[in-house]
Specification:
This protein is an alpha+beta fold and about 775 residues long. About 30% of the residues lie in helices and about 25% in strands. α9 packs across α10 and α15 packs across α16. It is globular. The chain starts with about 25 loop residues before the first helix and ends with a helix.
Length: about 775
């Protein structure tokens, strides 16, 4: 596969380097409907596939009758778990241990259910036919003999002594009894505290709902025994490795993963899913490509969900209001199986990110992670980072109200100062940079904090309640990973960046080209980007955890230096000078002190023709692997204003201000877009998105008629400002921005909502604060 279809000419002038708001290169392609997503592919001879899914949430699978389906017109095969003997199951890569030192209980997930089904929507069989209509008809003819078993859908139910077991190898339905922090020191801090504030906080389960449903095409090449999977993903290299090592049980050289455009993911499309192995096996058996595309109604059940953790959180303060410690006790719902990276999001990520921007000496976080008869939980934008920031910011707001302190002054008192950097946080992380007080002050000024009373009075005159809230956040970006930085000088005079992160909506092509332009002077309209073919990568950590520019950007910087090194030797041969006399400036190699020189792209063209000097490089191509940069610490302060109609409970975010420190901002236009998207998703979680199961484990919010997502009309006027303090841990000084919108939105919106309701006696409300929930809280406070 050549460069991805978004690798088109850049309309922006070549002088637009780092720091310039260059429009996204792929937008003309996408808005004209010329994108190429997995479902757009039609391979020669491809058959169509439909999965038969369990209609019940928990049951003993006694049999599958597929004879009638196999006899139907156009049907090529019906595959069940019995056909997958010899392959592996989907495993979990995390090495967590319980508090008693025993390993986490992580039963692997079968690609097709074997003896039991454990959630509604679990795949049980695969039907393959000549056409999609024939596959659907045949799937409906497959008869499942399932004996119903008792169901649990919440972590609280799963923890009950008499709860039915989801997995025999997980007594008490416990996947992990997690703890992090210093329990003894935390207990001592709470014992000595002048004030302790406590809240029961819910981080509600979300259906992720990217614009593009999942789709995949399995291909098998019998000549070399090689599998190819065309699929939307967040990184083809890691997905290839997981498929080969854990599921297909074959050499990595026998597996290829190809990704074109991806219509959103937010963490959901990163891992191996159960559907992939049956598709590849069917392609092998049938000798032709097999294509599957999820229906949206299936996606509600089959795609990993996000969040779903409930905690009791406490914050201890001394007599002056200084934070002494925080403590968390909670339960997290894992769903029926562990996602390959679970329960990282509900445990370590919450604990580390809850420290935030504050000098809190110690903490103690303990979370019980439990199996239930629900769709498995996976990563969703921020994956524990918004949760941690939400918990601490709600506690701070509550502590200020209980002690009569000014909420801004309480934050200022406890913030880490610039002179504290580098700051060794109790999370084990070391913050390298940041000016948290300045970000807070700038956000308050931009939000016109002092002018809020007048706006509140104006809202009250219209019969509405108005509140203002702060979300002062810090995120720890994804753990370090190696990343490829390949540069290939093409025959048509363009340069292809090859790297293992993957753009699923972020707009990588433009900022990556800006970095290359900054280092090598290559015009933006000459730069292409290749990310989606595992065959062309030698490393790749994928996109996730807001690390793409830190990883791929650093790889491009280092690869550019290697190009210059090779170019000096080549230019010396062309210009008949010594390599030590060659300097590189403004995109040209020049003999120092003379006007003799050659442009970088012209030199690449000469090398393709060949030089007489056998010692000269044959090309300027580089295949480089960047050794991982440490995590970075993007931070910021969001200020939201919310209006509530007390008669109906309807809440709306009416004003929103953001000031963020993302270090070096390569492309402010794209960064602002990322913030907008994250904030809107945060508003959706805070006020709208409710995932509900009934007692039988059926998802009753299983369509857009039942599950409320924010629309354009729900987006408030939003200001965006940057207060960059460059990171010291990577060559570009970048910090990552993709998930920060959620991290700032959850606390700022919910703090603003509680601020609006407090005058009516409501001191706390949990997410999602739907109109019904707000109306009920107001009625309860009134004693109605």
């Amino acid at each position: 596969m050549n460069a991805r279809p978004d690798a088109r000419d850049f309309a922006a002038p070549q002088q637009f380097g780092i720091g310039q708001p260059v429009p996204r290169a792929e937008d003309p392609v996408l808005v004209q409907g010329q994108g190429r997503y997995t479902d757009d592919l039609a391979l020669e001879g491809q058959a169509r596939a439909v999965f038969v899914r369990s209609p019940v949430a928990h049951g003993r699978l006694n049999g599958i009758d597929a004879e009638a389906a196999r006899a139907m017109p156009g049907v090529l095969g019906v595959f069940t778990a019995a056909d997958l003997d010899g392959y592996g199951r989907i495993g979990n890569s995390m090495a967590f241990t319980n508090q008693d030192g025993s390993p986490m209980r992580k039963p692997p997930q079968p690609s097709l259910a074997t003896d039991r089904v454990r959630y509604a929507g679990e795949p049980v069989a695969l039907v393959v036919a000549e056409t999609l209509a024939e596959a659907r008809d045949a799937a409906e003819a497959v008869i499942l003999d399932i004996e119903d078993l008792p169901v649990v859908t919440t972590a609280e139910e799963a923890a009950a002594p008499d709860a039915p077991l989801i997995h025999d190898e997980a007594p008490g339905n416990l996947a992990l009894d997690f703890a992090l922090g210093d329990r003894a020191a935390t207990d001592a801090a709470f014992a000595a505290a002048a004030h302790v504030t406590c809240l029961d906080l819910v981080n509600n389960r979300l259906v992720i709902n990217p614009m593009e449903p999942r789709a995949a095409i399995g291909v098998y090449e019998p000549g070399d025994g090689r599998y190819t999977l065309h699929v939307g993903s967040q990184g083809v290299f890691g997905l290839r490795n997981s498929l080969a090592d854990g599921v297909l049980k074959t050499g990595r050289d026998k597996v290829r993963v190809v990704t074109g455009h991806v219509g959103g993911s937010f963490g959901m499309k990163a891992p191996v899913y159960p559907e992939y192995l049956p598709l590849l096996h069917a392609a092998k058996v049938l000798g032709r490509p097999v294509k599957w595309t999820d229906l949206r109604s299936e996606s509600f059940l089959s795609d990993h969900h996000g969040r779903d953790v409930a905690v009791t959180a406490e914050l201890a303060l001394d007599a002056e209001g200084r934070f002494l410690a925080f403590r968390v006790r909670g339960r997290a719902n894992m769903g029926a199986y562990l996602n390959p990276l679970s329960p990282l999001f509900q445990t370590v990520n919450i604990a580390r990110n809850m420290v935030g921007v504050y000098r809190t000496p110690v903490f103690d976080v303990a979370v019980a992670c439990l199996y239930t008869n629900t769709t498995p939980i996976g990563a969703y934008r921020g994956a524990g980072r918004p949760e941690g920031n939400y918990f601490i910011e709600r506690l701070i707001e509550n502590a200020a109200a209980e002690t009569g302190r000014d909420r801004v002054a309480l934050r200022r008192l406890n913030q880490i100062r610039p002179e504290d950097m580098p700051y060794a946080a109790p999370s084990g992380m070391t913050y390298d940079s940041g000016d948290f007080p300045a970000v807070l002050d700038r956000a308050l000024a931009a939000a016109d904090w002092d002018g809020f009373p007048a706006r509140r009075a104006e809202s009250e005159a219209r019969g509405l309640l108005r509140g203002i809230g702060i979300g002062d956040y810090l995120e720890i970006t994804a753990p370090p990973m190696n990343e490829m930085g390949g540069l290939r000088f093409e025959a048509d005079g363009t340069v292809t960046i090859i790297t293992g992160t993957l753009d699923y909506g972020q707009g990588h092509a433009t900022p990556f080209a800006q970095v290359l332009h900054d280092r090598l002077g290559i015009p933006l309209d000459k730069v292409r980007l290749l990310q989606g073919d595992s065959d062309q990568l030698i490393a790749g950590g994928g996109t996730g955890g807001s690390k793409s520019l830190m990883a791929s950007g650093a790889a491009i910087v280092e690869a550019s230096a290697l190009v210059i090194e090779k170019g000096r030797a080549a230019a010396a041969a062309v210009l008949e000078a010594g390599p030590a006399d060659i300097v590189f400036e403004d995109g040209r190699f020049v003999v120092a002190g003379t006007d003799r020189g050659i442009g970088l792209l012209d030199l690449a063209a000469k090398l393709r023709e060949g030089l007489p000097d056998p010692q000269a490089p044959r090309s300027l191509d580089v295949a480089h692997v960047h050794e991982a940069s440490p995590s970075a610490f993007p931070n910021g302060c969001h200020v939201a204003e919310v209006e509530v109609d007390p008669e109906t409970g309807v809440a709306a975010v009416v004003r929103y201000t953001t000031v963020n420190d993302f270090g070096t901002v390569v492309n402010p236009l794209l960064v602002e877009g990322q913030i907008h998207g994250g904030v809107i998703q945060g508003i959706g979680q805070a006020l709208m998105e409710r995932t509900a199961y009934d007692e039988q484990g059926q998802l009753v919010t299983g369509s857009f008629m039942d599950y409320c997502l924010p629309r354009a009309a729900d987006a408030p006027p939003m200001s965006f400002e940057s207060h960059p303090v460059p990171a010291k841990t990577n060559p570009l000084g970048v910090k990552g921005c993709g998930e920060a919108g959620c991290a700032g939105a959850l606390p700022s919106v919910m703090n603003a909502l509680v601020d609006a309701l407090r005058a009516r006696g409501v001191a706390h409300i949990n997410m999602p604060a739907t109109p019904r929930a707000i109306w009920a809280a107001l009625r309860e406070a009134e004693g109605a």
